[in-house]
Specification:
Layout: H1 23-38, E1 46-51, E2 56-59, E3 63-72, E4 76-79, H2 80-84, H3 91-98, E5 102-105, H4 112-127, E6 136-140, H5 151-158, E7 165-169, H6 175-190, E8 194-202, E9 220-230, E10 237-244, E11 252-253, E12 256-258, E13 279-281, E14 285-286, H7 288-310, E15 319-322, H8 327-337, H9 348-351, H10 358-368, E16 377-384, E17 388-395
Parallel strand pairs: 6-7, 6-8, 15-16
Antiparallel strand pairs: 1-2, 3-9, 4-5, 8-9, 10-17, 11-14, 12-13, 16-17
Helix pairs in contact: 4-5, 7-8
The structure holds acetyl coenzyme *A (ACO).
Domain Beta-ketoacyl-[acyl-carrier-protein] synthase III C-terminal: 307-396
GO biological process, one term: fatty acid biosynthetic process
Family: Belongs to the thiolase-like superfamily. FabH family.
Length: 397
C-alpha cells in the first residue's frame, strides 16, 4: 500500500517485455533495502508471529497466490421471456444488446449471506484450508443484509474460531478486484496467511422492476477465492491498477433519500429538519450509454497499465476475465487488447450482471470446468458504480 510504504504499484519503472517480474516484486525489493537500512529486521511483509524479545514484529518477505475458489447462485432463474411479461422488452433485444439470456434472483429463505457462505465454503474445500485457519474475510458487496456490514455473519456461519477480522468492501462491480488487491496488501504488509475474498451481491433488491433500461441487466450471486501467503518466488499477483472518478457518479447511482412523510416527532417545535425523516436508498439509476462508453474506454487502459507494470504483453495473457456486464463491452475490450475470443471467459448469458460476484463466479466455473488451468495467467478487470475501475494480472494456483 502506498500510504504505509509497503507496496508501490504506481511507481514508475521501465518495463521490459522479457521481464517476468512485476512492479510489486520490484517495489518489494526496494522496500526490502529500505527496511535493511532502518531496522534490524529484513524483508518486506510483516509476519504476525511476535518477537517477544524486542516486541517488534518480525518482517518476512511474502507473496500471495489464489488456491481455491467457489460460487453459489439462487435457485430461481428468470429468463428474458419472463421479463418480457413485466416490461416492454424482448428476448431478441436483450440478447442482442447485452448477451444476457437468464439471471438468478433471490427468493424465499435465500440470502446473500447464505450464498456468500456457500461460495466461501467451496473455496476453502478446494484450497484444503480449515475455517479456523482463515485470518481475514473480505466481503465485497454493495448489498449487505445489515447496514453495518455482512462479513462478520459469514465468519459466524463458517464457524471460524479465534474471531478473525471480517469486514465489507463497497465498490459495486469493481469490489472483487479491490478486495483481491486489499488481500494481497494484508498478506505482504500485514502478515496475514489465509484470506477469503468474497464477491456477493443481490442487486435484484435495488432494481426498479418497471425500468426496462436496468432491470434486464442484473442478477444475484456470490463467488469467493482463498488468497494464501506464499514465498515471494511463488507470488501469483503480478500487478494491479485501480481508479475512481466521483464525477461519474451522476451516470450510475442508488443514492440515499429521505422518505417524504413527516413523523410525529417533527411537529414538537424543535429545530427545523430535526429529527431527520427516515431514509432509504433509491433504485439503481443508470445512464447506460455513458456507462458503456466509460467501460470500453477505461478497461483496456487499466489492463494495459497492469500489463506494463508486470512487464508482460497481450500475448502473455492466457485468459481475459472481465466484470460480466455486457457481452458487447467484453468483445470490444478483447478486440482492443487483441485477445482472441477463445481466450475470453464469459458466462453472463446465464447470470446477467452479478456486480461484485461476477468475476469470482466466472472464475469458479472456468476453473471447475477445466478451462483455466494451474499456472495460467489471467488479466482481470472490474468497473462500475462510483465510478470505480481497476485491473489485476494474476496467476491461477
Ligand atoms: N428492451 C427494449 N428496448 C429497450 C430496452 C429494453 N430492455 N432498454 C432500452 N430500450 C430502448 C430504448 O428506449 C431506446 O429506444 P429509442 O431509440 O426509441 O429511444 C433504444 O432501446 C436504445 O436504447 P439505449 O439505451 O441506447 O440502448 P443500448 O444499446 O445503449 O443498451 C444498455 C442499453 C444495455 C443498458 C447498455 O447501454 C449497457 O449495457 N450499458 C452499460 C451498463 C453497465 O455496464 N453497467 C455496469 C455497471 S453496473 C454497476 O456498477 C452496479
Amino acid at each position: 500500500m502506498n500510504s504505509c510504504g509497503f507496496y508501490a504499484p504506481s511507481m514508475k519503472i521501465s518495463s521490459s517485455p522479457s521481464s517476468s517480474i512485476g512492479v510489486n516484486r520490484i517495489g518489494f525489493d526496494l522496500f526490502v533495502k529500505k527496511i535493511r537500512c532502518s531496522s534490524e529486521v529484513v524483508h518486506g511483509g510483516v509476519d504476525r508471529v511476535s518477537n517477544t524479545k524486542s516486541h517488534v514484529q518480525r518482517l518476512v518477505g511474502k507473496g500471495c497466490k489464489l488456491v481455491g475458489c467457489g460460487s453459489a447462485a439462487p435457485s430461481l432463474q428468470i429468463s428474458n421471456d419472463d421479463l418480457a411479461k413485466i416490461v416492454d422488452t424482448s428476448d431478441e433485444w436483450i440478447a442482442a444488446r447485452t448477451g444476457i439470456r437468464n439471471r438468478r434472483v433471490l427468493t424465499g429463505n435465500e440470502s446473500i449471506t447464505g450464498l456468500a457462505t456457500e461460495a466461501a465454503r467451496k473455496a476453502l474445500e478446494m484450497a484444503e484450508v480449515e475455517p479456523d485457519d482463515v485470518d481475514l474475510i473480505l466481503l465485497c458487496t454493495s448489498t449487505p443484509e445489515d447496514l453495518f456490514g455482512g462479513a462478520p455473519q459469514i465468519q459466524k456461519a463458517l464457524g471460524c474460531k479465534g474471531n478473525p477480522l471480517a469486514f465489507d468492501i463497497t465498490a459495486a462491480c469493481s469490489g472483487f478486484i479491490i478486495g483481491l488487491v486489499s488481500a494481497s496488501c494484508y498478506i505482504r504488509g500485514g502478515g496475514f496467511k489465509n484470506i477469503l475474498v468474497i464477491g456477493a451481491d443481490a442487486l435484484s433488491r435495488n432494481v426498479d422492476w418497471t425500468d426496462r433500461g436496468t432491470c434486464i441487466l442484473f442478477g444475484d450471486a456470490a463467488g469467493a477465492v482463498l488468497v494464501q501467503a506464499c514465498d515471494i518466488e511463488e507470488d501469483g499477483l503480478f500487478s494491479f491498477d485501480l481508479h475512481s472518478d466521483g464525477d461519474g457518479n451522476r451516470h450510475l447511482n442508488a443514492a440515499v433519500q429521505e422518505k417524504e412523510t413527516d413523523h410525529e416527532l417533527g411537529t414538537n417545535g424543535s429545530a427545523r429538519g430535526f429529527p431527520p425523516n427516515e431514509s432509504s436508498y433509491t433504485c439503481i439509476k443508470m445512464n447506460g450509454t455513458e456507462v458503456f462508453r466509460f467501460a470500453v474506454g477505461t478497461v483496456p487502459q487499466t489492463i494495459e497499465a497492469s500489463l506494463a507494470k508486470a512487464g508482460l504483453t497481450h500475448s502473455d495473457i492466457d485468459w481475459l476475465l472481465l466484470h460480466q456486464a455486457n457481452q458487447r463491452i467484453i468483445d470490444g475490450v478483447a478486440t482492443r487488447l487483441e485477445v482472441p475470443k477463445d481466450r475470453v471467459i464469459s458466462n453472463l448469458a446465464n447470470y446477467g450482471n452479478t456486480s461484485a460476484a461476477s468475476i469470482p463466479l466466472a472464475l469458479d466455473e472456468a476453473v471447475r470446468s477445466g478451462k483455466v488451468k494451474q499456472g495460467q495467467t489471467i488479466a482481470t478487470a472490474g468497473f462500475g458504480a462510483g465510478l470505480t475501475w481497476g485491473s489485476a494480472i494474476l496467476r491461477w494456483g
